[in-house]
Structures are given as structure tokens and as C-alpha cells.
Amino acid sequence: MIKKNLFRVVIFLIALIVCDSIFGLFSKMLFNTQKSGKYARLTYIIKTDTSDIIVLGSSHANRQFVSDIIQDSLKESTFNCGTMGQKLLFNRAIYEFRERRSRPKMILLNVDEDWFLNKRDQQDRMSDLYPYYGSMGDIIFEDFSRKDRLLGHLKLLSKTFPYNSTIVHIIKYRLKPQDEFKGYAPLSGVLDSLQLALKINSEKGLDRTKWPPDYDSSLVNLFSQFVDDINRNNIRLFIIFTPNLLKPYYPKIDEEVREICNNKNIPLIDFSNTGFFYNNRPLFDDFSHLNDSGSRIFTKLLVDSIKLRMQH
Amino acid sequence: MLFNSLNFIVFFIVVTTLYYVLPFRLRWIMLLAASCFFYMSFIPVYILILLITILIDFFAGIYIEKAQNKAHKKALLTVSILSTCLVLCIFKYYNFIVVNYNEIAKAFHWNYKVEYLKIILPIGLSFHTFQSLSYVIEVYRGHQKAEKHFGIYSLYVMYYPQLVAGPIERPQNLLHQFKTKVNFDLNVVAEGLKLMCMGFFMKLVIADRCSLYVNAVYNNVHAHSGITFIAATFLFAFQIYCDFAGYSLIAIGASKTMGIQLMTNFRTPYASNSLSEFWRRWHISLSTWFKDYLYVPLGGSRGSKLNTYRNLFITFLVSGLWHGANWTFIIWGAFHGLYLIIESMIAKGKKYKFPAIWVFIVVCFGWIFFRSNTVQDSFFIVKSIFTHPGKLFIPSDQDVTAPIYALIGIALLLIVENRSKIAGIFPAANRPIHPYLSMSFYIFLTLIILYLGVFDGGQFIYFQF
Question: Per the residue annotation, which of B323, B336, B388, B434 is the catalytic one?
Fold first, then answer.
């Protein structure tokens, strides 16, 4: 009886491992066929791109920094590496990986006001890099605690898990490839005036002087280190705050970034309070992203500002 | 420690292994220590609150049994119930009462503002309070002998699989199982693991996926319109079901691996043909608790029709309040109470079958109040559904995939839950399943969890109750 039971357990475990490996291999093949969408961009950034100028940041970078305008104005090859929903930890990982393989000459780092919030959430979002675990495993978990790092490596023993939640993305962009221009993914809509009015109304009385509850000072130190690393490698760095349609939620965090830039003598180009964009609904696709017209105006103003600073 | 974390998997393997390795006399000690560790992994100091509840009801049970006359027994029971409920009231309802008092004071220009308590609700407080109450009431009724072993009684309240979100067990079902020796049986362990696998599927593949869309909509109601609210409420119906039924399955499965049976908590509730049937299939351990300890003592359906309706309404109002200290939950409870009264008027004491889809719509309507952050939000949603259908909200890029994965998961769940009906259509499916086929199904389910599950440790909704 014991032998029979033991046999069943062994068979189950072997079958599970084999199925996981086969399914993982199949998922990997499917994953690598992507030509468009977030993962296709990431694969290009991680494995191929050698541009001189890279844009790092979240969707605010991805949707608002027009690579062609930057490239034409600054006469250097440019790629927009901004990734939707990503913050400090992810962008630092992308930078490290890129720097190891091919060092860029300039980085345009778009910092959002939520970069110093909720480290746990930022760690969770590193899952976008799991499919590249084989080539950048050490970088993915670099800023994790020892326990989280161990758990992360443990999870990725599975060959299927790295491709978790990628299938719909693969199908979606195969059926409808994303318009993308050297990493820049334009938005074409115009924000609805009723939605804007409702949003303004719902934000009335919001206390913007408080520190957000999930503020994490360890992320400030990490940001400081990140900036130091870039400087140490003699890469020209510009930190950029993108335009706001409405008042920022956490001005205190913007202040903190300003202070770090001042202390380290890093040029900060701040569009967050630019009157031209503020409340200029036709230039926005949604509450926080410019549409293509807005992005083109913004990028032109940005490169002018960069040129001016480079002359000095 | 959340069930859907790797920490729990390690914890579970260690505890279950130790359970079978240790001699029987040491098992309860290990289980109690493990349960303390499990609870303390949330907020360690709150174990003291649990200890207070355990001490009150442990001694109350002994003295109630010893008491010579009924009046004495009743007095002891009252003291026990009041003191146990006092702990619950302070932590769960104090700030709610203060908020409402301050609002009234403001309206009448009274100058007596009461300060809020800066406390966090201990995890699962309502669950172990009810389990503890169930014990003293059963001792009082003479259905259960008072437990003399403090350790075993503590384990009854603290047993880790059902400590923070039930099922709310009865002493008759659970206590004796801690005193019965269980030998290792691979079939029993395998059954438990299968239940856990299904629970993880429901939680990680369906509930946590649905939550991404639901939260985006319900946390920002003014940015959305009717059709989006319908979609979000439909997904929330499956989110809350899979979240809670998933938790229950993991709890029942984890317990079963040690040979300890916990009660069934859900039986495909959305297939119900009436709301009263829904409540016989949804959160069974809680609905039977309310039935046995509130509805029946109030008089149940023994008196006039009017009294029955009153008892029904009170029970659901309290049930709403149990779910949370917010007017949204009270309205949700009142809605269910009122609808049940109307339903029982239509049925006139006979078994009346409504179409399951209608019952599902009614339940979903109730969920709007349950999920809304404020009463104003819930009425805004209801109004939007009827007056401003608008455009369906499609989340941007990565989040757009969340509802699609959720729908895939829901489709799989419906197939699994309705397998007996499907078997009726395909007679070949009626043959006994070969063990290796069953094994293949669970391997498939594991791969689906790995491929489609959400692994960022999202909280279980019912933890807050």
C-alpha cells in the first residue's frame, strides 16, 4: 500500500514537472514570436537596442516623448523605453541591463510623483521582466529583501510562471498591432469635457499637503543611488517632470526630487506647472496623458530646453 | 500570512508534515503554536484580544455547565455574550458610532465632538467572535459539554485554517476532532490538496483578476457610467464568490489534509432559484449561525406572518452590520431582508422557483451596495445604470487583459461546477473517473494557476469582516 501511494506521488510530481516544462517551452516560443506591444518593445530594449539616447519612465514617458523629434533635434539615435505602469525599481533594472550591454550617451528620465510610493507594488510589477529571468535574474531581484529575493527565485523555478498573464497580450497585439515609433506610442483621443468636470469636482477639498500613506523613504535612497550610478558612468542625465492637466497629488514628492537634483547638480526640466498645458483639455487624451498633438508640442519644448542647457 | 502567498505554502507543508510526524499527544500543542504563529504574522499584539475572548468563553462554558439553575446559567451566558461582543464593538463599531454621532452633533450644532480611536480592526475578529459565541450558546443549550482542556479550547477558536475567515464552526463538529487520532492516509491528503488547488484557482485566477477591473471602477465612480457599472458589478459578483469560496476551499482542504473536517461553506450559490435558496448555499456557516442563534431565538417563523417578516428583516439587518461598520452594508442587509419578505409573500409557503438568472440579477443589485465605498456612490451607480448607460470602460493596455483572464476563469469554473449537468448531456462522462485522469485535471489546473493567476498576494475580502 505504502509503495503504491509513494508511486502515485512520484508519478504526480514527475508529470507536473514535465507538463510545466513543456507548457513553459511552448509559452516561451509563443512569447518570442511577438512583433508588437509591450513585450515586443521590452525584448527589443533588452536584447537589441543600442540607441545613444534613451527615455526611461512610465506611460508618461512612453506616451509623451516623441523619439523622432528628439532624434532629429539632438542628432543622436533615440529610443523610448518608457513602460506603462512602471516606476523606480523597473526603470533602474532596465537601465542596469542596458548599461551592461551597451552604454547610452544620454538618459531622459521621466520621474512621476508616485515613484517613492509602495515598494511592494513596484516589486510586484517587476513581473514584466520575468520572461527575461534567464538573462537578467540577478538584476530583477537586486533591490528586493533577502526573503523576497529567495521567494522570487523559488517562484521562477517553474517554467510556465515567467509567462504568466502574457497570452491575451500576445493575441491582442497580433490581431491589432500597436502603432509605435521608436518606442513612442501615441494616443489619439481628446479628453471628454464632462469627465473632466466630474474629476475636478471629485478632487475638490483634496489635501495635497500631506505625505501619501504608502510613501517609502527607502525608495528615495534608491533613487539617489540610481542617479549616482548614471553620473558615475558619465551618461548625461536629464530628469523631467511631464505636463499636468490638473494639480499634482503629491507636490511634496516633487519637492524631494527637486532637492536631490539640486544637491547632485542634475538638470531638472519641470513641465508640471507649465501654464500652457495646465487645464488645456484638447491636448490631453485622458487625465494624465497628452495626446499626440500635445506630446509633439511638449517634446519640442523639451528638446529646446535640453539644447539650451547643453549650450551652457 | 495570506493563503495566497509562498510563505503560507511553506508554512502549510511544515505544519502538515509535523502533524503526522509528531506523536498524537503533542499534535494539539503543535497545531496551537502554529495557529498562534499564523495569527501573529498579521499584527502580533492582537493575539491578546483573541486571548481575552478565549478566556472569557472558556470559563463561561465551565461555569454555565456547573450552574445549578436556569437563571444562573442565563446570567452567565448574558455576561459572556456581552463581554465577547464588547470587544467586537470596540474594535469594529466604535468609530462607526462616533462618525454618526459627530455628524448628528454637527447638524444640531452640539459642541461635543467625540474623538476617533486610532486602531486597526484585528483580522477575522467577527469570525472568531462568532465561533466563540457559538460554543457558549451550545454549552448553555446542553448540546455541548464544556471543554475542560484550555489548550484544546484555545485550538477550537484559533485553529489556523479557519481562524481569520471561517468557516465558522460549531463546537459539536470541531472540538471532538482534536481528540481523535488520525493516521496518515494519502487519499485523504490528496482530497485536501485537490480542494486547495480548486480554492487557489478561484482566488488567483478569478477573484484577483476581477478585482483589477472592479476596483478601477468602484474606486472612481464619477469617471464611469451605467454599462461599465453593470460590467463591474457582474465581475464583482464572481470576485466576491471566488474570493470567499476560494478561501473556504483552501481552509477546508488544508484542514482535510490533517484529517479534520470543516463544514461546507458554499454550494454553487448563483444556481439558486430563489433568494432564500441563495442563502442556503452562500456562506452556509454564517447563515446557519444567524438562523440558529438569532432568527430562531427571535421567534423564527413560529408566530404570525408579521412576526416572521420582522424576524427575517432584523436577522438580515444584523447580518449586514456584521459584514462591516458602514451604512452600505446595512442597506445591503436591509435590501436582502426586504426582498426575502416579498419573495416569501409571493411563494406563500410553497416552494417557488424563480429563474436563476433573475435571482443572480437581484443578488448583483445587492452587491452594488456591498461594494460601494459610500452610500452616495451606491446611489450614483444605481442612478447611472438606469439613466446614463454611456460607454463601456476599457482599461488601458496591461489592465485590459484582466477582465479577459477573469472571464476565461469564470468559464472554466462554470464548467467544473456544472460537471454533473454536463455529464447528463454526455452519458460517456458518467463513467467513474480514472485516478490518472483526475490527476491530469489537477495538473492542468495547477498550470492554469501558474499561467493565468495573480501572484501579488492580494488580500481576501472577508479578512476585513
Answer: B323
